[in-house]
Structure of Peroxyureidoacrylate/ureidoacrylate amidohydrolase RutB:
Amino acid sequence: MTPAARTHRTAVLALHYQNDVLHAQGCIRVGLAEDDPARERVIAAAGQLIAGARQLDLPLIHIRIAFRADYADLIQNCQIFRQTAQLGAVKDGTWGAAFFSGLEPIEDREHEFVLRHHRTSGFIGTPLELLLRKLGTRHLIVAGVATHSVVEMTARHAADLGYEVTIAADACAAARAEVHKASLASMSLIAEVGSVASALASEKDSR
């Protein structure tokens, strides 16, 4: 008789930790200047979140955005997507679309996954919801860049689907600090907003 699959109440979503978004030479760079210390703080916090998820044996789902070189799969119906094409950003198979060094997935780890999408919600056009159901997940720790786009859209989508959501705010960033803060304030109505350390500590304490 096959043993019952283990369930994982909490999973971590790591969103858009890619070169074009985080690297100083990236096309998008979430608006952080090359010498802005905020860049290193966000990268360090993201690293702590990813390492913490692995240490606690939490499912870790990396979601990356990437398009064909000719952007034939990019629906340019709004400014954020038109600008992506104008910048020549996140073309699949290029350095810019690859994961930032140190934040890349371990693809042979049992509960670590990589999904690719083309919109701002991590749920649109991906098997994310089916994967979370298979894992038995009801709580998501969400972080990534940018705060007001992929993080907020994914968090709101998750909340509408009935998931409990925690935002690891120090592992998120936006083009401007005030936009980041406003997005976090807005998400506080549908999610618990804290730090990487508090999110991981809460998960550890709940065991």
